[in-house]
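Input structure tokens:
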């Protein structure tokens, strides 16, 4: 009797987030090594089973109501909403705003839950008060904005500033 082992994996990326999925199946194959066709048939069946299992788990995790989708923008309710520019966008005639952001009329994505939590964790690690964190945000963004009102781009810039601040403080 032989043992068959099939392993299958997939990576799904959405924006700045990605999810990895994998499945591994091991089973006894009721055939001898000299029965190549029979061994191949059993391995093919194991591979199909792994593909079906992986597809089912990805569908479950990526469905509209799945936990893995909670960081994305909510689905439109069918009403037309006019696009909004990034915060502080002022056209300067060359297709870019005064803050360097594109003026293509696309709505800025709000910061993800992960980004917001990470900002709070970095601030806590640095023993920053709410007022001090607001000061960091103001120095990075150019205006006072609540952490949960940041765009993805702004949150990334704040995280970078807080991370550099941690690295600098750690060297002293």
């Amino acid at each position: 009797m032989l043992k068959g082992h099939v392993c299958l994996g997939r990576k799904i990326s959405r924006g700045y987030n990605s999810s990895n999925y994998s499945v591994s199946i091991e089973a006894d194959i009721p055939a001898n090594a000299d029965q190549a066709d029979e061994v191949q048939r059993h391995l093919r069946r194991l591979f199909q089973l792994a593909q079906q299992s992986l597809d089912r788990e990805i569908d479950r995790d990526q469905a509209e109501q799945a936990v893995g989708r909670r960081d994305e923008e909510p689905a439109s309710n069918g009403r037309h909403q006019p696009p909004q520019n990034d915060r502080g966008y002022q056209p300067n005639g060359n297709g870019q705003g005064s803050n360097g952001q594109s003026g293509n009329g696309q709505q800025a994505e709000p910061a993800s839950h992960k980004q917001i939590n990470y900002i709070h964790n970095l601030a806590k690690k640095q023993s920053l008060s709410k007022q001090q964190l607001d000061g960091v945000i103001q120095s990075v963004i150019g205006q006072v904005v609540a952490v949960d009102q940041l765009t993805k781009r702004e949150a990334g810039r704040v995280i970078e500033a807080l991370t550099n601040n941690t690295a600098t403080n750690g060297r002293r």
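The chain has four helices and two strands. The chain has two domains: 2-64, 113-171.
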